[in-house]
Amino acid sequence: MSFRDVFFTNENETKPNVKAETPKGATSFPSETKFPTNSQTFPTNNAFPSNGSVFSPNPTVAPVSNPFLDKIFDVYDKGFTKLNQPGYDFFEFFKAVSKGGIDNPQVYEMALEMGIAMDSNVSKQSLLNQADYYITELTKVHSGFSSDGQSKITDLTNKKNSETNSLVTEISSLKQQLESIQNQIRTKESSLAEIGDKYQPDINDIGYKLSANDMVKDKFVTNINKVKSNISNNLK
Question: Of 12, 81, 173, 209, which has the most beta carbons under 10 Å away?
Answer without folding.
Answer: 209
